[in-house]
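Pilot study result, target chain (138 residues):
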Amino acid sequence: MPLTITDDIQIADWELSESFTRASGPGGQNVNKVSTAVELRFEAARSPNLPGPVKARLRRLAGRRWTKEGALVIFCDETRHQARNRDIARERLVALIRAALVKPKRRVPTKPTRGSKERRLKAKKVRGEVKKLRGKLE
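Predicted structure:
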């Protein structure tokens, strides 16, 4: 079953791989017996469903979770249930990709107004006078 991000973007099953390990934290003997933590790998660099700019933004957003091979790794061991951890990891992946879909606004550089320049210079002048008064008297 493909993972749906938006109406246009769906992630195929072959792009995702999951491995389960034993989780740390509370859970008693259950922690030592059952592999509940999930590591979700998404082959983002090879994904034909993501456009290039989205991949670049996703890589920047992923940070340390992006591997040298171009895979995005999400680890989840929040709950004692394997199925719930799996759902949480998939939700995190969807949220990360949706955040990468948002194109950042281009900053339009502005010039300072004449009034703001004058106020700045006046403040500098006043500050200089204050410092001048600290000196030795003649």
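One observation from the pilot: The helical segments are 29-33, 52-62, 82-101, 114-133. A full batch analysis is planned for the follow-on phase.
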